[in-house]
Amino acid sequence: MKSERTTVRRLPERGQYDAETIYEVLDANFLCHVGFNADHGPVVLPTLFGRDGETMYLHGSAGAHMLRTMKGGVPVSAAVTSVDGIVVARSLFNHSINYRSVVIFGVAEEVTDVQEKLHGMEVLTNHILPGRWDEARQPNTAEFTQTIVLKLGLDEASAKVRVGPPHDHEDDLAMDVWAGVIPVFTSTGEPIDASDLDSKISTSPSVQTAKQRWSAS
Amino acid sequence: MKSERTTVRRLPERGQYDAETIYEVLDANFLCHVGFNADHGPVVLPTLFGRDGETMYLHGSAGAHMLRTMKGGVPVSAAVTSVDGIVVARSLFNHSINYRSVVIFGVAEEVTDVQEKLHGMEVLTNHILPGRWDEARQPNTAEFTQTIVLKLGLDEASAKVRVGPPHDHEDDLAMDVWAGVIPVFTSTGEPIDASDLDSKISTSPSVQTAKQRWSAS
User: Fold this and answer.
1) Fewer Cβ neighbours under 10 Å: the N or C end of chain A?
2) What angle do CA B196, B200, B203 make, to 5 degrees?
3) Share of chain B above pLDDT 70, in %
4) Is the pLDDT confidence value at B66 over 80?
5) What is the pLDDT of residue B73?
6) Is A86 part of the contact surface with chain B (CB cutoff 8 Å)?
7) Each residue of A78-96: pLDDT tens digit?
């Protein structure tokens, strides 16, 4: 997974290239930021993703600018980041963030084969809400046509991770000021029923699984 | 703040252009994803930011690839996203995410004036840890020189917000499956002392303020 452009140039001790680390970071998130070159310059947009093995699936409306641009097969970069803590040092210079991030380079390709497109939709759905694909009504022809599915290979991806306490200069250790880490994490709350939901219907397994999956990860 | 390229093309009812909304989204976050064109194609990287009025400050090491590329004044795009919930519908097609996002277009310029550079550093520090600039040791000459500060104007920015329950098709409302929203939010934990911290030193005001600021926002 290491190529010239995925080599982490700054702080190389934070660069990690094994697939396991990359997949862990991706599977702890469902939002990525995708960048591509539009006519007027670079564009970065947030979008959802799902992962299946070495493939990342993205989706969107057939009318969306991003997808219209990308389906031609233009190069993209995508980044996925978890923030784990604010690192508070004695010197401002040594302040930092604990985080896990993955940066991907590749060419996003539209998935046109019907079976593969359905598979991509299922991967995306079940990445965010495990098992939801079999609980909800599946796309009808119009919905299927209105949705574009893109795939992006993970063969050119790198992870960068910072963990642990601040690293202060020895001369600063005697300062009378607090140093340490403020943990930051994602939480989920109690699911909120849709106002038009029959009150006899309780949350489904996919909702309970998602509530756990996206909490404190 | 509305230009041709910040016009939200998809779901225009979600596009919001007032400065207040844009600033609220930015001030609820400290991480952005910046995209630019490197020689080999688009690159998206996570980085910290601070906001002062209509200016976003970014920083990094003078050796960092991103900053070396950007300081020449190349066009960039930056996106900031808060995820607020997973929207669970009866149909897979109407699943969504509640979120608040800002996308910025502009040219990142290096801040070279000493006073303005110090100001940018202070803005960035106090955005993440309000008041920390006056608590910690400020940069010495070597640290100041090793740090690059960039500024990016917010005059070409747009916000996109989705709130509320799923919107299912009328024909799907009778389905025997749960629909609603799983709230997602950011939390902070109890600050963890650095192992080399004198146990008599307790957390400073900036740490307590940051703990509140970045919780459940």
Assistant:
1) C
2) 80
3) 88
4) no
5) 79
6) yes
7) 999 999 999 999 999 999 9
Given pLDDT bands bounded at 50, 70 and 90, which one contains residue B170? very high
Q: CB distance A187–B189 less than 8 Å?
A: no
Amino acid at the residue A212: Q
Residue with tokens 């920015």: B157
Which amino acid would we find at residue A48?
L
Domain boundaries in chain A? 4-213
Residue A179 near residue A90 (C-beta atoms within 8 A): yes
Evaluate if residue A153 carries a pLDDT over 60. yes
Q: What is the rounded distance in angstroms from the CA atom of residue B43 to the CA atom of residue B28?
A: 25
Under DSSP, is residue B50 helix (H, G, I), strand (E, B) or coil?
strand
Please, which residues bridge with residue B167 across strands? none
pTM comes to: 0.92
**B186/A183 touch (CB, cutoff 8 Å), yes or no:** no
Contact B35 A177 (CB under 8 A): no
Within 8 A of A29 by CB-CB distance, chain B residues are: none
B residues 147-176 lying closer than 8 A (beta carbon) to A? 147, 165-166, 168, 172-173, 175-176
CB-count exposure of residue A51 (10 Å: 0-12, 13-18, 19+): buried
Q: What distances in angstroms separate CA B161 from CA A181, B17, B96, one per listed residue?
A: 31, 11, 12
The tally of CA atoms less than 13 A away on the side-chain side of residue A36 is: 23
CB contact under 8 A, B207 and A88: yes
Ramachandran angles phi, psi of A18, nearest 5° = -75, 145
Of A152-166, A181-195, B57-71, B106-120, give the lowest mean pLDDT range: B57-71
- CATH architecture for the domain at B4-166+199-213: Roll (2.30)
Map tokens 């310059």 to a residue: A41
Residue B170 and residue B83 in contact, taking contact as beta carbons nearer than 8 Å = no
Closest in A9, A31, A37 to B81, CB measured: A31
Chain A residues in contact with B15 (beta carbon < 8 A): none
Any idea which architecture A4-213 has in CATH?
A: Roll (2.30)
Residue with tokens 């110090």: B118
Residue A184: pLDDT above 80? yes
Please answer yes or no on whether A44 and B138 come within 8 Å at the CB atom: no
Question: What does the pLDDT read at residue A61?
Answer: 79
Give me the pLDDT at residue B71, please.
58
Residues of A in contact with B214 (CB under 8 A): 86, 182, 184
pLDDT tens digits, A8-60: 555 555 667 789 999 999 999 999 999 999 888 999 999 999 999 999 999 98
